[in-house]
Amino acid sequence: MTIVVSPIINVVYKPRQLFEQNKLKTVQKLRVDAELRFIACVHNTRQAASMINIIECFNATRVSPVHVFALYLVELTGRAAALVVAHIGKHMSQFGEQNLTRSQEELESINNAFDALGEAYDAVRVETLNVVSAYTTIHEDIYHSADEKRTSLILLPFHKQLSLEGTLEVTNVVYKDINQNVMQGAPCSVGIFVDRDFGLVPKTNLHIRVVFVGGPDDREALAIAWRMAGRSGTQLSVVRILLLGEAAKLDGLVPDEAQGILSAVIDTDRQKELDEEYISTFRLTAVNNSDSISYSEIDVHSGEDIPAVLKEIEKYGCDIYIVGQGNCRNSKVFSNLMEWCECLELGVIGDILVSNNFGSRSSVLVVQQYGYGGMVFGNNLNQKATDKGTFESVV
């Protein structure tokens, strides 16, 4: 019986196969001729317009179409159960008459906007869903939707929006908590879009810049930008930051923990191999065959050099930065800078680019790749982030 039971279980129950399928929930691992399915989360009509602007850049073609699931997130304030539906009907009045009226008006406007997107592009399919849930648990509904729709990417709006003065101001702090909750356990890759009047940028002459340091998030960012670069009139410039000397030191190496050191070194070496492999493929396939795609490298020897390098890159200008969040970099330099970040979900590079003190007018898309564990947002970092004096002086 013991001999027979084991192979029968292996034949009937295959959790490993399910895990391998989940590992493919990234843009990087997606086949060139596969449909790109992603979720675009919005809280209001302004964010819907922002999402539509970035969706238009994804180079939807008949060979590789785009399927968008627009999730309109509505806060549930009563005791009723959370619900995910395509449209809000009269039978849903139990969720609160005040909230429902506002939701119906905005949902109608958002529906019309996304429907117009689907009609404008033959290779874009759009479905609008309404998620009615408490904000503290709404990330779980986003998870379920991503699993059910088999998406490769979740797009989230930043919790700040551009003011008339040209600075980013907080719209709702709760949106930040939702974004962080989604990043902690999303079943696919996640992108946070920071909109700086991206809708005013002519898509026929779009300039994208990727700041590549290394790690899974940066590879996912490059994969998204690479896909966008296939659209006519789009220019892509990739700037790779090479960490040398002091900047190349690994983070969290304790002499007494030999096994931990070995594990960190092996993981870092593996990530470097993957980076080199992907960059080599990109340069061979894209850079050598297209005049609209460029690649350059910059050496960085210390943490103070990173803001200075970004300032130098900013002088050349671009319409949108696409950068990785920076998880699994194992870099001491970035870990130290992370302690002074205001928005931990954006990572070091993203936080500097989004900072009002940096002075950039470009939009930013920060990407986290699925498969390497979600971000952990500790209270100690949030407390240090309140003291921005040192960080602002560095920027």
**Could you list the spans in which at least 5 consecutive residues all have pLDDT below 50?**
16-21, 88-98, 379-395
- The CATH topology of the largest domain: Rossmann fold
* CATH homolog superfamily of the largest domain: HUPs
Radius of gyration: 22 Å
Q: Can you lay out the helices and strands and say which pair or pack?
A:
Layout: H1 2-12, H2 15-22, E1 36-42, H3 45-55, E2 66-75, E3 83-85, H4 97-120, E4 124-133, H5 138-149, E5 153-157, E6 160-162, E7 168-170, H6 173-185, E8 189-194, E9 207-212, H7 216-228, E10 235-243, H8 258-285, E11 293-300, H9 305-314, E12 320-324, H10 332-338, H11 347-354, E13 363-368, H12 379-385, H13 389-394
Parallel strand pairs: 1-2, 1-5, 2-4, 5-8, 9-10, 9-12, 10-11, 12-13
Antiparallel strand pairs: 3-4, 6-7, 8-13
Helix pairs in contact: 3-4, 5-6
Structure, described:
Helices cover 40% and strands 21% of the residues. The protein is of the alpha/beta class and 395 residues long. It has two domains: 16-195, HUPs (Rossmann fold, 3-Layer(aba) Sandwich), CATH 3.40.50; 201-395, 3-Layer(aba) Sandwich (Rossmann fold), CATH 3.40.50.620. The protein starts with a helix and ends with a helix.
